[in-house]
Amino acid sequence: MLHTVNKSPFEKNSLETCLRLTEQDSTVLLIEDGVYGALKGTKIEDLVSESLSNVKMYVLGPDLMARGLDKNSLINNIEIIDYQDFVKLAVENERIQNWL
Amino acid sequence: MEEETQSGVIKKFLYVNRRAPHGTIYAHEALEVVLIGAAFEQDVSMAFIDDGVFQLKKDQNTDGIDTKNFSKTFSALEMYDVEKLYVEKESLDERGIKEDDLAVDVKVISSSEMKKLITESEVILNF
Fold it and tell me: What pTM, to 2 d.p., does this model score?
């Protein structure tokens, strides 16, 4: 199952709830303001790092670049993908949950 | 000739920015309103709190999301005599952002200093 999160984790609890209620081996894709959840050195870094043993996490590159962020800003093992990869994930997964 | 605005009154304006830059229109709209305030020769200060600090992150490139990269406007604010940009330190720390990561010169202040700034302002606009 693919989960997308598009809200900043500092403004809403969408990411936190997503990670709490997401089944093992799911895929989580951070888009729009959701990409801030992938930053290292934040107050929620530990929560996100720990979740990486359960889920595979991606962040959408164009949204990251728009916000002045890049690979060096991210927690290890979070992968940057492009729009085509996003489409692929959407096709590969039978269901998608968008945590708004 | 004496300096005077059309109304003859100069007030201390504070624009409070608490939203991240591209997910919503707030940050962009705030800048538009700031420039209007500056055109009326008001005493303008900007405060960046919570996710608002992300607005000032340097190296923003919006080519991939087809929106206007309004972050460049921050470096032009000086030309409009908008020079007082205040950033709350606690907000930077929570987000792993350092003063060096910001695109323009700002004054990083503590929560208690921010409290004082808000208290001393005459007109406060929140975005």
Answer: 0.93
Query: What are the structural domains of chain B?
Result: 17-95 (3.40.1260.10)
Residues of B in contact with A65 (CB under 8 A): 60-64
Shortest distance, CA B80 to any CA of chain A (angstroms): 25
Distance CA B67, CA B60 (A): 11
Strand ranges in B21-71 using DSSP code E only, listed in sequence order: 43-48
Number of H helices, E strands in chain B: 4, 5
Task: Note the ipTM here.
Answer: 0.93
Residue B43, burial from CB neighbour count under 10 angstroms (0-12, 13-18, 19+): middle
Q: Per CATH, the architecture of A2-99 is what?
A: 3-Layer(aba) Sandwich (3.40)
Chain B interface mutation, best of A6, A7, A10, A64, highest count of B Cβ atoms under 10 Å: A10
3-class SS of residue A80: strand
Question: Cβ–Cβ contacts within 10 Å for residue A93, how many?
Answer: 15
B44-83 pLDDT, tens digit per residue, is 999 999 999 999 999 999 999 999 999 999 999 999 999 9
The per-residue pLDDT for range B1-55, each reduced to its tens digit, is: 345 555 678 999 999 999 999 999 999 999 999 998 888 889 999 999 999 999 9
Phi then psi for B49, rounded to 5 degrees?
-130, 155
- Touching check for A81 and chain B: CB below 8 Å? no
CA distance A98 to A29: 10
Contact across the interface for B22 and A63, Cβ inside 8 Å: yes
